What does this fold into?
Amino acid sequence: MRRVCPADDGKTIDLSRYREVLSMDTYAAKRVPEYFGSMVFNENVMKEQLPKDVYKALKKTVDEGSAIDPAIANVVANAMKDWAISKGATHFTHWFQPMTGITAEKHDSFISPEGSCGVIMEFSGKELIKGEPDASSFPSGGLRATFEARGYTAWDPTSYAFIKDNTLCIPTAFCSYTGEGLDKKIPLLRSMDAISKQACRVLRLFGKDVRRVNTTVGAEQEYFLINKEDYAKRKDLIFTGRTLFGAMAPKGQEMEDHYFGSIRPRVKAFMEELDDELWKLGVLSKTEHNEAAPCQHEMAPIFETTNIATDHNQLTMEVMKRVADRHGFVCLLHEKPFQGINGSGKHNNWSLSTDRGENLLEPGSTPHSNAQFLLFLTAVIKGVDEYQDLLRISAASAGNDHRLGAAEAPPAIISMFVGDELEAILDSLVRGTDYTDVEKTMMNIGVSALPPIPKDTTDRNRTSPFAFTGNKFEFRMPGSSFNIACTNFILNTAVAESLRQFADELEAAANFDTALAALVQRELKDHRHIIFNGNGYSDEWQEAAAQRGLLNLRTTPDALKHYTDDKNVKLFARHGICTATEVQSRAEILLEEYAKTINIEALTMLEMLSRQILPACVEYSNKIAGGVAVKKSIGIEAPAEMEMAREMTVLIGELYERRAALQKAMDAVPEKTDVQSYAEYYRDHVIGAMEAARAVTDRLETMIGEKDWPMPTYGKMLFYV
Ligand code: ADP
Ligand code: MG
It folds into this structure.
């Protein structure tokens, strides 16, 4: 059969003639635009399915953030249900993001009894707007008393409903009956309003009547793919998501042959299906490539408004795991699945954009827009400097502690890269003497003197945690398994606070231009120390940063201690993001999560040591010793085997002791009266004991026959074909 597809000129091309040069997929000519967003109740579907007045009312609600009229909700719910059923859905769920970092869902079917033995499919406005999951088992950090453990979920109409696994998923926020946010979405939505409000005030001073400024995010997602059979044989991966043991393979990533290298056909097939699944869900998956470590890959989407980008990133992680399974893989999203090679992060690309599509971090080409750009840039610099601790907190977890500062990811110190050109401009602004007349003031703030700032140069610094990349900032600290809501609500709020202060000052100024120049100069001078264009991975930077007075919060408990600092609690309260109690509860949840993670890791280690590793080592050394005895009995000396058995026996003894030391540390875990010191106990007493036990195990692994080692090695897991 002749396969044809329409050409641009309306004629047809016979694709069969290109069989040799076209892959089968191209040959089959996928029609992505036709199925992109096909599982999403988006703008187009709404226009098609809703009566005009209902559509308009819904749109108004979304744009203005007002409460929805119940009558409208009923019509929307009914249309959603009909559309979902036409796509094969039978259930619906309120899809929300509790503090566990994953998404939660409880499925209800649409069925409702009809007559004596029939059912009809129903979905009411009430069910759309509000859900009441039994939420007592979600972490709340003491926010909800157990006697009123029911939280409720509320529809977030700014994020489209979608169908996943025959279920209509309704994005929702999750809060307690007294209104405290119990999820990651509520503070994010509040922070988006806060930054919009302050940015609009600033823009008004530049003569712009803007009604909404949104933050935009593109979250690059790193991950590992390993074979399912290997995964199934490793309890550490199953229980903790990372390998707790494992000697390095003879080859790691030193040849630098994996990054952007050609993609294994099996992985390519996975990526194609991943894209398809994400596209159906309206996720703008754009780039797929290999990362630095063997088996490590990345997906980068096109940026979107922050809360949508957050929902989409959560979905991406879920879809990655599901699609991997269909291809015989397991997708590892842990920050450090393998010691000795790179871990995985999530680059949070962030900018600000007006409802008219103006990117506020795009350097301008006119004097006026230059000044505006420099003011917003200064606001970010000030926000990042003043809230270094919070940004570090937004990337704090037991998993990410293995990654930060391990010469593969930024250190735990927050600094900003702006590139040489911009640094020189900022420095000249700082140096500028006091200008009194307006024209000179404008000169000082850039104007004609501002040279073009090259976008995204290839030599840009990959070692910086917070880099300006032409028209956006890229925050590289967050871990691969994180929900990016946390990073973004913190970043939004920190910058909202700078903008608030700027707007207050400039609104009150007699002469805007003079005041603007003075403000930019003063703030840049005050926050100059956060800008660092050098190598963030170097040891010298650790020292230099300390001299500059920058924070270096090495571990998660170090960082989380600062969550409830007075300045931070005040910041969140001032912008209506969270109350002091909510901040306290978030800090507690994260500290507890840290302790629980290490607790599970330690228990897994003890189990693997007692039931797999020590028995295997004893058996193998016994085998050799038995051989020595046999040889001896027939008069053959076997000094080499004897030495092997002896050396192994010594190491087994050492391992036995280290296992006992770990057990002792676990037996002495204190009561959880104070979460901070509870988490610190794990950091100070358990992690060290785990590392010690691992070191001996990894030595033993290299001495024991491959067939006799009870789990797949790094070499087997990382270098499959
Ligand atoms: P990289 O070399 O790090 O891959 P890219 O320029 O390809 O850099 O962009 C990386 C990410 O930044 C993508 O997800 C992209 O959509 C996102 N991005 C680009 N512009 C913006 C913006 N204005 N706001 C937020 N994210 C953006
Ligand atoms: Mg990047």
